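From the pipeline queue, job 12 of 40. The input is one protein chain; the requested action is below.

Action: predict structure.
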Amino acid sequence: MPEFSEGLSIVIPTYNERENIEQLLAEIASVSVQLNRPSEVVLVDDRSPDGTAELASGFGRAIGLDIRVVTPDGPRSIGGAIARGLEVCRWDLVCVMDADLSHPPGLIPSLIASLDGADGVVASRYVPGADIASASVYHAGTHFRGSSFFAGRSYDRCASGETVTNRSWRSSFKPDPL
């Protein structure tokens, strides 16, 4: 069995993402072979009435992904879904991404490579020089260290870009109680 620090958990909060989920999971499956590490998908579905959870579970398994679908109790919130995903991850290295295809899975390998001793990296279309009209707007390697990145900000607002962090560092942050 690999060590806790050797794998990657991909946490995806969802609500009514049925129309995107097959494409997203197929892209993750194609990237997974490039990672040279064990990986899992933790899809946290906030009780989607459109069948997102069921489709993701069946399709993910059919294409060979190690996928777990978690359905949290309580109020719906993206921060709460991310926090629940972090609680159940198998691996310390965690990528959090949206299910709406706005976070390209193809960036995962470069995000991991960009860690280089940092606590985490964020791919964001909001960094200087980014072009909002294209997927290439994401810039891997925006490093952040310790609590200075999250200081004074809610978890929901800081989780708006595709991120890769060590769960042991990130788990101390709590979502907004909304």
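Job complete. Helices lie at 18-32, 52-62, 78-88, 108-114, 155-158, 167-170.
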